[in-house]
Amino acid sequence: MAKPIIIGNWKMNGLSEEADHIVSVLLTYAEQNQNFAPTVICPPFTQLYHIRKHVKNTPYALGAQDCHIAEKGAYTGDISAAMLKDVGAEYVILGHSERRAEHKESNELVNKKAVAAYKSGLLPIVCIGETKEERDSNQYKDVIANQIKGSLPEHFNGLVAYEPVWAIGTGVSAKNEDIAEVILFIREKLVAQYGENGKKTPILYGGSVKPNNVKDIFAIPELGGVLVGGVSLIPEDFLQLVTIAQ
Ligand code: PEP
């Protein structure tokens, strides 16, 4: 069975000193350990170029946290997928619930970003997941079905991350049976949308994953890995996830 993938989303954290510290702990671990589970670190844009130099030829891959839909042009303040590829990123997180909420990103926009990522040779990690209200009112499956239909492009070669909004950064992970139910639901939808290819798409879980709950989460059928926020900034804890995944 393939080892689960671990993706660390630093969000808007990581000044140079902190970034250097995290990366040096990760590199020391990589020197001492083999059989690595696939591990991706997604620092803010400002650290990508610098970190690229350190993680080149190590087991760590680099990802970004967003991209624009255009390749280049008059989009002040934005970053294109081609630029991310140029500085060594291989992955890009798209449609994170923080961007959907704070930047009003729609399924349609996330879909266009996934196309842009694909064209530039990046693997998109498309985030989906319901809010607390949608879970409590039992609408979560409709929300997730809509997000899959709307956010994933016609040709999709990336990863899907199920991140219930109410579990992100709260310290309270979703219950394993609830995660398992949604992961199977997502798989069904992917197969309906993409046929055989939909069976291969890795489906990740994100939301308060920690060293003390990750083992049970990895045991969930069809789960392809985890997307972690807070713990990715504590390299010792993050590496515990990597160790457990091996
Ligand atoms: C996230 O930011 O995608 C996330 C899952 O955060 P946390 O692990 O802190 O809940």
From TrEMBL:
It catalyses: D-glyceraldehyde 3-phosphate = dihydroxyacetone phosphate; L-erythrulose 1-phosphate = D-erythrulose 4-phosphate. Its EC number is 5.3.1.1. CDD domains: TIM (cd00311). Gene3D superfamilies: Aldolase class I. One of its GO terms (cellular component) is cytosol. It is found in: Cytoplasm. The keyword Transferase does not apply. The active site is at 96 (electrophile), 163 (proton acceptor). The keyword Nucleus does not apply. Substrate binds at residues 9-11, 169, 208, 229-230. One of its GO terms (biological process) is glycolytic process. GO terms for molecular function: triose-phosphate isomerase activity. InterPro entries: Aldolase_TIM, TIM_sf, TrioseP_Isoase_bac/euk, Triosephosphate_isomerase, Triosephosphate_isomerase_AS. Pathway: Carbohydrate biosynthesis; gluconeogenesis; Carbohydrate degradation; glycolysis; D-glyceraldehyde 3-phosphate from glycerone phosphate: step 1/1; Carbohydrate metabolism; erythritol degradation. It comes from the Bacteria. Pfam families: TIM (PF00121). It is an enzyme of class 5 (isomerase). Its main location: cytoplasm. Belongs to the triosephosphate isomerase family. HAMAP family: TIM_B (MF_00147_B). Involved in the gluconeogenesis. Catalyzes stereospecifically the conversion of dihydroxyacetone phosphate (DHAP) to D-glyceraldehyde-3-phosphate (G3P). Homodimer. This is Triosephosphate isomerase. The gene is tpiA.
